[in-house]
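Predict the 3D structure for this chain.
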Amino acid sequence: MEASEQSRDLTSRRSFLLKGAAVGAASLGAGGVLLEPSEALASGGLTKGDAAILRFLAAAEIIETDIWQQYNELAGIQDSEVPGGSGNPDYTAAVTILDSDMAQYIHDNTDDEISHAAFLNAYLRAHGAQTVNLDKFRTLPSSQATGAQQIGRLTNLMQLTVNTSFWTRYRSDSLNPDLGDTLPQAIPDLATGQHPAIPRTDADLAPTDHLNAIAFTAGFHFAWIEQGGTSLYAGLAQRATHSEVLRILLSIGGSEIMHFQTWQDKAGNALPLTDPTTGLTFPDLNADGELTQTNLIMPEPTPFLDRKFPIVSIIRPTETDGVAMGALNAFTADGLFIGQPPEFFAVLTGLAKAADAARHGS
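Done. Predicted structure below.
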């Protein structure tokens, strides 16, 4: 990569999307994923811990970008900000059942994640630290449905197992996973199988409950992705040392919260149905009381820190111990990485462990 191209990559989010995490390409070693950090890191740039936190978050945002790009190619708006696909009218129509503005929201969420990944890698480089590049792992297949690019992917959106306990977690006034509580699944079937959230081929696109179930799976997956980022940034912020790094985490984390709030509202518009192909059932979420009620999108007050305190409306979980590995494990359990080689997991595990080892002041 030429020096002028590197400079353009630092400031171009569009270039980041088109080249697939190109802002980190200068950090690739021969046959490797990451190079050793420069001496600038040890001479007053970022602390080792802050750099590790930012690297893991950069990796997470690159993964999120890969997810959202696939959704945008099929059901979002393709333009110069988020180019790539050509759209799929049938899938778009099914997703639109959740909200008439879904295409715009998917586009904007994609654009946001591109900006997060590009910024974090650029900030790391500006401080002489390692950047993150996962391009060598872009080998998973694309959807074969009309509208999708036929390129290698980091993530698999066609075999998902979506944990929907986030839905009941934010509606419970007595249970908090930070205090060891386990929340029930809002959509039990989504957590017990490998379900597509995008069509595998055009055969999935007949306007039936099968296609609607695929679209509704995507709707709950949208919210699942963003509630994870909401908690991840809050958890890792507690380990940051430099005030500017803390500012970055709080600022990007706030954007993730806005995403989650949007998506859980839209997911609640999923209609009760049973997929005739897979048997996946979406129940009437308004039939079982407040724990699944669809319009309760503000976080219900819940126990926090200690049950001796009054309940309070909060983001949860925000436990910081093991939060990065927890996020990686959640990504893996979701089925996003089905088909990736052991080296991929080794790289991400190393980044997660380094972030979890960060301590304020180190």
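The mean pLDDT is 90.
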